[in-house]
Amino acid sequence: MPFRSGANLFVRNIFLAPLRLAIGWGLSPRLLGLIGITMLVLLRISIGWHFHSEGAAKYRQGDWDAAPFFSNAKGPLADHFRSKVWDYQGKFRRDASLTQWWFGQFVDEAAYYYSFTDQQKQAAADALTHAMENHELILDDYADDLEEYELGLKRLESYKDKPERSGVESLSEQVETVRKENDAKLKPALREFDQLWSSFEAQINGIGLQPYQPHERPAPVPMGKPLGDEGMDTSVINKIVPYFDLTIGWCLILGFFTPVAALAAAFFLGSVFMSQYPPATGPTSSYYQLVECMACLVLAGTGAGRFAGLDFFLQLIIRRSEAKGDKKPAA
Fold first, then answer.
1. Measuring CA to CA, which residue among 267, 304, 314 is closest to residue 44?
2. From CA 308, how far away is CA 303, in angstroms rounded?
3. What is the Cα Rg of the chain in Å?
4. 51, 245 in Cβ contact below 8 A?
5. Does the keyword Transmembrane apply (predicted)?
6. φ, ψ for residue 74 (rounded to 5)?
7. How many whole angstroms separate alpha carbon 73 and alpha carbon 25?
8. Domain segments of the chain as ranges
9. Would you say residue 167 has pLDDT above 70?
10. Residue 192 has pLDDT above 80, yes or no
11. What pLDDT, on the 0 to 100 scale, is given for residue 199?
12. 196-199 — which CB contacts under 8 Å span 24+ positions?
């Protein structure tokens, strides 16, 4: 009888094993089995490594810029994401007085940093005058395009007052086409302005570095960009994102403060998905970010860092503290 009972149990397990694999190996859906825990750990490390590799690549690149990503945003939140691009419409760079003010601020900063002599101060002043002359030439060369761009902005604003254009997909696509065509009129002038900024930055640093020997030269002064009206724009985001990716990556790899890191990662990936909503299909689809976002929510909800992670030790500290607090003092 024991043999027969054991044989029946063996046969039953053979038939039940595929079903348990299909729905979950654990006996209770409230408990994670060894297989489930292993998969969570692998998922956590994989996502962590993805964030780490992305952050490391951005950091090594040095000049990583989120502007192209935000500029190509689409969907109901497109205007919000495009507003995060520093000087998206070029208002600051096209304004001669604002440009001269910022260039002057940079000259003062460089003069203090390099301890300019009177001769260097004069050379910097001449460079500023020459830069503003070039700025005026750029405005003259692209005057027609810039005028058409301003007219295009007014046209796009008028479309916003017509909700039927955004409600119908075909009309919405027409508005997006008009916007891209209008932006194309501005881009050549902005490229010229960007070259002017880069050239002026290099020229002022060149003046400051002249007295130094090659092996004694300090790091050049970055001119940077003034903070826009939005506050948190790409001039700030570009500096934060590489370190954000690296931090999230290491937290997930090590299983340290996993729920916090996973929720931050989910928010970041969710914003990427929403910036390209509705998503396209193919290799450039943002569905991949949505899937990874949901995976991060799973990591946060299960506290996956408690399995083969540093959160396990933090959990022990918490449990021991609670256990001591629950003990009643002896009478």
1. 304
2. 11
3. 29
4. yes
5. yes
6. -140, 170
7. 42
8. 20-86+231-317, 88-224
9. no
10. yes
11. 96
12. 196/131, 196/134, 196/135, 196/138, 197/93, 197/223, 199/131
